[in-house]
Amino acid sequence: MTFPRYGAYKRLNAEWIGEVPSHWTHKPLWTLFRRTKRTGHEDEQLLSVYRDYGVVPKASRDDNFNKPSDDLTTYQLVEPGDLAINKMKAWQGSVAISEHRGIVSPAYFVFKAVHQEEPRFLHYLLRSAEYTAGYLSISKGIRPNQWDLEPQEHSRMPVLLPSIREQVAIASFLDRETGKIDALVEEQKRLIVLLKEKRQTVTSHAVTKGLDPDVPMKDSGIKWIGKVPEHWDVVRIKWAARMESGHTPDKKVAAYWENCTIPWVSLHDTGYLKEHDFITETAQFINELGVANSSARVLPERVVVFSRDATIGRCGITTRPMAVSQHFIAWVCSDRVKPEFLLRCLRSMSQELERLTFGATVKTIGMPDVRSLTFACPPIDEQEAIIERIRASNARLDALIEAADAAITLLQERRSALISAAVTGKIDVRGLVPEQAEAA
Questions:
Q1: Which of 3, 110, 157, 328 lies 20 to 30 Å (CA to CA) from residue 122?
Q2: How many angstroms separate the CA atoms of 338 and 329, rounded?
Q3: Which spans are transmembrane here (predicted)?
């Protein structure tokens, strides 16, 4: 869909804005918002400023792992209409007009509204790609991911101001169009969840029931496994693979951590293991001196590593000799089990692992329980057939997941481009919303 443009444009001194409609005005940010610091409201709900969602209650998201301070008395009160900014991430888009009352970190900037403009328009404008680029141009620091917004430069940023009628029209247009896009994004996200569930179901069924639906079955005696083919063995993993516990060289001995070249699987790798079957590179390394002076061992390639602390059950197959930290164990497979088959079994026992997990602050599975882990073990030729069937099924499902991810990226790019075009006047949307919306 193409959109009309305004009749005439002008260029502002701020290069990051570009051309704007000639009849639009602008004011420095300090004339619209005044910095404020209201403290002593520790009983209010915690808020966070997200790049993608704006200001939201912290409790409404399950992906915010920042731990708040034990003392909330210095946290700042945010009221509806306030401008809240994560000053170290403004250049990433963590800027928003709040619709909520609550408190934010003392490290944030909070600004009280002293204007009569349309808050929805300002929300879209100050979060647009152009303004994000503007924040980047006035952010300074020595750490690339935590550049501080320079307050004086920020206070002088020009804020575009079409008429109130136009502001309302633009905000109403964007509410409608971004709502449509957001709904499509949510559909794609739900599709991805269903595809991943399908992938897990296919895997779990294959490693516990096999590929022949007509084969005679028997009770495994293990609740999470259920019935298995009659000719399969049900054994503890340690009887089919040699279990190796992980170790960490003494952190207080600097010499153990210099010129490190030996890959060392640690909790820093659990994010990678969530999405990958094989691990070639690790986030951390140790050296030969650290290995020689601790219980650490360099294990051969094609070992199945498994996290038993914190993020429990993340596993993968090493592609070269590696050591593992004390938070991991490793299984060196015998000729009785293929590493790829054992990997699939471990990823299918999430409910069993959850049952065995304990600990309030740091989740863990005790070594006795790790030694008791049991799986259904078919003959090697069946393992190879199951591995190949899972690989083919996963390839098809992963292609669909990749397509859905690509669709989400395109939709989000369109959303960002539409907002930028509307709030900077590159397109004229005044005739694209009901008249009552413009006059509201």
A1: 3
A2: 17
A3: none
pTM given for the model? 0.82
For residue 27 the two structure tokens come to: 């004011």
Tokens linked to 438: 């413009």
Distance of alpha carbon 222 from the chain centroid: 34
DSSP states of 112-163: EE---S-HHHHHHHHTSHHHHHHHHHTEE-SSTT-PEE-HHHHHT-EEEE--
In the numeric block, the tokens 């940010």 are attached to 29
The residue behind tokens 């444009």 is 9
Q: What is the pLDDT of residues 41-81, one digit of tens each?
A: 989 999 988 888 888 988 887 665 566 777 889 999 999 99
Q: How far apart are CA 91 and CA 311, in angstroms?
A: 31
Cα(340)–Cα(319) distance, integer angstroms: 12
Q: What are phi and psi of 322, to 5 degrees?
A: -150, 160
**H helices of 210-338, where?**
270-275, 288-292
CA 178 – CA 183 distance, rounded (Å):
8
Residue 24: φ, ψ to 5°: -75, 150
**308 within 8 A of 327, measured Cβ to Cβ:** yes
Nearest partner of 126 among 103, 102, 107, 149, judged by Cα:
149
Mapped onto helix, strand or coil, the DSSP state of residue 295 is coil
* Torsion sign, CA atoms 275, 281, 284, 285: positive
Q: How many whole angstroms separate alpha carbon 137 and alpha carbon 103?
A: 28
Name the token pair of 373.
Answer: 């882990």
Task: Work out the end-to-end distance of the chain between its first and last CA atoms, rounded to an integer number of angstroms.
Answer: 26
Which amino acid is present at 67? K
pLDDT at 438 (0 to 100): 52
207 contacts 348 by C-beta, under 8 angstroms = yes
